Recover the amino acids of this structure.
């Protein structure tokens, strides 16, 4: 039997970014530099997560953040690593982090043209159990003459120039997409210290019978959500099979699986959390861009396109349904019946 040849033409993230830059004649290299800083932040966060149990980095930090979450030690470290990477690249003017109540302004770089929103560690409640967590990021380009204030970030997701997330699981994965582009997946090769392009042009399957939601909230769900989830569990058609349930509780991991296998991920707004749980700037919008660019769909609890939702403040929240096109369409159709 024939042995498969080893791939010697490896595309590293470094090569990928350089090639992307050379496609744009007008490019200054600022965005590429910013991406290199992101890449460094991901590698260092991945490193500390792997070592957490060995170096006393498990457990709580003792404070809570602006959205009321108890911070884990690694939430704080991930945040510090991310902030210094963004500062040191000199191309970022504004930064919003889940772990920082206020917007960070890098006044030392008044001419920097980018703004970034990040969730340094998504799924941090899972950290001590060794379950996959990740980092979510969104990059915005400041408008010409922007003052460098909060208003520059209170924009719809359609304004993002790039977004993506990492998942620190059995291996570290990076999923990245640029405005109007496709979605590419990289795997960190720890021996090389490089992210390698392993999932070029990711396309989410059009449908798949998997749903991902925290069912413990069902008491608080609105009627359309109850009816929709019930329709998956108790199919009405003759011979219909119920959907499988998968819920990790780290959005990055649930989203990564959904991207690869298809299905739906939902964190709807409900009677207890009328604005939903997940935050628009650094959780919902960047994920929505990834899903749309991979051929999927993402809407909020009002069935509006997630990417068009404008946050009122930097930590604003939203309900979200995202996944395969046909699965999200079912959610929309069920909601229509209630209008
Ligand atoms: P974070 O760890 O950044 O605060 O985000 C947690 C989010 C997300 O990862 C996940 O999908 C959701 O919270 C899980 O919430 P529940 O525990 O309420 O299901
Ligand atoms: Mn949190
Ligand atoms: Mn999160
Ligand atoms: Mn977080």
């Amino acid at each position: 039997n024939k042995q498969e040849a080893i791939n010697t033409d490896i595309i590293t993230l470094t090569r990928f970014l350089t090639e992307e830059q050379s496609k744009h004649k007008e490019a200054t290299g600022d965005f590429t530099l910013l991406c290199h800083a992101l890449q460094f932040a991901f590698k260092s966060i991945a490193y500390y997560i792997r070592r957490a149990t060995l170096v006393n980095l498990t457990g709580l930090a003792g404070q809570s953040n602006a959205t009321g979450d108890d911070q884990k030690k690694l939430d704080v470290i991930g945040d510090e690593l991310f902030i210094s990477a963004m500062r040191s690249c000199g191309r970022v003017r504004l930064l919003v982090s889940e772990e920082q109540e206020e917007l960070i302004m890098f006044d030392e770089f008044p001419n920097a043209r980018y703004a970034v929103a990040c969730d340094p560690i998504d799924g941090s409640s899972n950290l001590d159990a060794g379950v996959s967590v990740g980092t979510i990021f969104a990059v915005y380009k400041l408008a010409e003459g922007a003052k460098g204030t909060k208003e520059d970030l209170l924009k719809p997701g359609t304004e993002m120039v790039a977004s993506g997330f990492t998942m620190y699981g059995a291996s570290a994965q990076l999923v990245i997409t640029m405005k109007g582009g496709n979605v590419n997946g990289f795997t960190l090769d720890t021996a090389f210290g490089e992210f390698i392009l392993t999932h070029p042009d990711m396309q989410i399957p059009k449908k798949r019978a998997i749903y991902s939601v925290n069912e413990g909230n069902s008491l608080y769900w609105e009627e359309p959500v109850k009816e929709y989830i019930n329709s998956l569990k108790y199919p009405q058609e003759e011979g219909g099979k119920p959907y499988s349930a998968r819920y990790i509780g780290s959005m990055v991991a649930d989203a990564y699986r959904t991207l690869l296998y298809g299905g739906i991920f939902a964190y709807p707004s409900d009677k207890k959390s009328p604005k939903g749980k997940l935050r628009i700037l650094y959780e919902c919008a960047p994920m929505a861009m990834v899903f749309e660019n991979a051929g999927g769909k993402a809407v909020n609890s009002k069935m509006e396109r997630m990417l068009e939702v404008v946050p009122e403040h930097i930590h604003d929240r939203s309900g979200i349904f995202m996944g395969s096109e046909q699965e999200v369409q079912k959610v929309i159709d069920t909601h229509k019946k209630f209008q």
Summary: Residues 65 and 151 are 21 Å apart (CA to CA). The first strand starts at residue 60 and ends at 64. The chain is about 30% helix and 25% strand.
